[in-house]
Reverse transcriptase zinc-binding domain-containing protein
Amino acid sequence: MCILKHIWLLFSKAGSIWVAWVHEYLIKGRSFWTLSIPADASWGWRKILKLQYMVKGLIQHIPGDGTNIYIWHDYWHLSGPLIDAYGMASNKISSIVQIQMHLFDMFPKEGEKDMVIWRPSNFGNFKVGQTWNWLKRKKTRKVWHRLIWFSQAIPKHSFISWLAILNRLSTKAQQRKWTPSIVDTCVLCNNEPETIEHLFFKCSYTQKIWKTLSAMAGIPLTNSWQGLLHWMGKKVSRKSLQNTLVKLAWNAAMYHTWRERNKRIHQKHFKADDEIVYEVQFDVRCKILGFARPKSSPLPMDIAKQWGLEDVVKE
Ligand SMILES: [Zn+2]
């Protein structure tokens, strides 16, 4: 916990002598998140660098003039650190356009200082108790890992579900805690505040998607997102092609819902709920056709038909 606090100080307390020394001699003008552990690192510095991955999603930047924020590695964009959301290797003009659209909403704010917040705490400052509770919650949620990280998972889909379950996606309700002027209405229904539970479950738009997908994959309708997660966490622990399909469909729906939400905000591009269902069906079908062998673990015919996977149940 003490080490976490030291990392927080590196980002928040430019005035302290220790922080100034670390920046001058160890960080040397680079992004903290890119530092590797030097062979001659002291015990303390080694401990700090070992926690980089764990802390990365906990420190968020609210851009002012942007002079203290690293574009690829810091968490300032709605989608999280850009290196994780877009990836350096697959840089495409389309990604840059999406990033740029968001930048237009934020800049210029000349003379305004960048802010940094500690996400597990209610008011953005490091608090031991609240951080401890956040980490504990994270531990108990590990039960959902098998729903997200499985061998046939589509990594970019799983990444969004993972951030959603850990409540680390920057929803409007979340942003409003730090920037009260933000209008937090959900862009999918224009009706309710955009929280994780609303966006991925309660929203009238998302509900239509779930209703269709539930019928297609044989998932019962539940009355809460937690209830749905609970059912899936238990059900999908057993290995079968149908359970893999359920997991793939759920993760794909999470991903395409979040993508649709971002497109509406940044590109003013709207898709109907049945188009999202089609995208989910397409991704799941392609993935399953890529690894399933006929009769290896057949799907019930009614489900196979819904997903265009009749070949998988044939001899
Ligand atoms: Zn909504």
